[in-house]
Amino acid sequence: DTAAQDGHEVYFYQNGEDEAHLERLEIIDELKQALQLDDGQLFMAYQPKLNMNSGQVDKVEALIRWKRNNGDWVSPELFIDLAEQSGLIVELTKWVVRVVITQVGVWLREGLTMKAAINVSAQDIADSAFLPHLEDMLAIHGVPANLITIELTERDMIENEERGINALKALKALGVMISLDDYGVGQTSLGRLKMLPIDELKLDKVFILKLNESHQDQCIVQSTISLGHQLGFSVVSEGVENSESLTLLKQMRCDYAQGYHLSRPLPAKEFINWLGSYHEVV
Ligand code: C2E
Ligand code: MG
Ligand code: MG
Ligand code: MG
């Protein structure tokens, strides 16, 4: 057969593992191309974050989407992981930062002040070009730093700790907010939590998805909100899928809520349409 005539294919297709390896290499390669072409395969989706104190949506989380030219969607869970393993994440995050800050600047000039959260990885924080790029984008697009939040998971925050914490402090000095994403499923001890230069705790969705049904989740969430507030953090819940959970979070004095109950992540234009027809739900 043809595979047998081609040394490379025989090499790569020896077994399922090699095939998966090749597939990963192809995805990384295509992702690299998609970043360079910037032809719309990659775009940002924006998910509303409801300010529970004001009842208004004054913030979004920016989440990357990839629809390959062949029509396939690739999940960010998969390609972000591959981008991290291959080092491409630094370039990808540069693109994300540019696109999101451009969008926030466009909204500002249209009269809409909308804060935005950007997800980054440990490698971005360790990259000495990250902060200057962010600073450049803010200046070019006339966006005040306090409209931008950087979201990092516990794992990303703990990697190369000393350097990481200093880099986060430099970001904070710039005026951007720092959020600890997926809180509660990682390894952050309470001792470490108080040392981290963060502004926001973002409870992982595992505690929120069934909040309305689970007494245990209610205990965990209530305690974490209290702890977060006493440490001076704003607390956000992600994965709010029903109105009962939203009401509970309001009673528990959670600061922000995000989830499918409000809206799925949407492309910018659709988000603006959604916002136009939004009526206060809490
Ligand atoms: P994350 O930062 O924790 O983002 C929250 C994820 O939960 C998103 O998945 C979002 O679509 C999903 N979600 C929001 N509301 C609900 C809900 O009510 N129910 C459920 N079941 N899920 C909900 P998504 O967009 O697939 O992203 C997955 C992860 O990929 C993100 O987790 C983040 O770690 C990473 N990611 C996404 N975009 C970017 C990016 O631009 N840069 C980087 N570095 N990572 C990104
Ligand atoms: Mg996030
Ligand atoms: Mg999260
Ligand atoms: Mg996550």
Layout of strands and helices, then pairs:
Elements: H1 2-5, H2 7-12, H3 16-37, E1 42-51, E2 57-67, E3 73-74, H4 76-86, H5 89-109, E4 115-119, H6 122-126, H7 130-141, E5 148-153, H8 154-158, H9 161-174, E6 177-183, H10 190-193, E7 200-203, H11 215-230, E8 234-238, H12 243-251, E9 256-258, E10 266-267, H13 268-276
Parallel strand pairs: 2-4, 4-5, 5-6, 6-7, 7-8, 8-9
Antiparallel strand pairs: 1-2, 1-9, 1-10, 2-3
Organism: Pseudoalteromonas byunsanensis
Keywords: Membrane, Transmembrane, Transmembrane helix
GO molecular function: cyclic-guanylate-specific phosphodiesterase activity
Structure notes:
- The protein has 282 residues and is an alpha/beta fold.
- The chain is built from 13 helices and 10 strands.
- The chain has helices at residues 2-5, 7-12, 16-37, 76-86, 89-109, 122-126, 130-141, 154-158, 161-174, 190-193, 215-230, 243-251, 268-276; strands at 42-51, 57-67, 73-74, 115-119, 148-153, 177-183, 200-203, 234-238, 256-258, 266-267.
- It has an 8-stranded mixed barrel with strand order 1-2-4-5-6-7-8-9, surrounded by 4 helices.
- Residues 1-13 have low confidence and may be disordered.
- It binds ligand C2E and magnesium ion (3 copies).
- The site of ligand C2E has 24 residues, from strand 2, helix 4, helix 5 and strand 6.
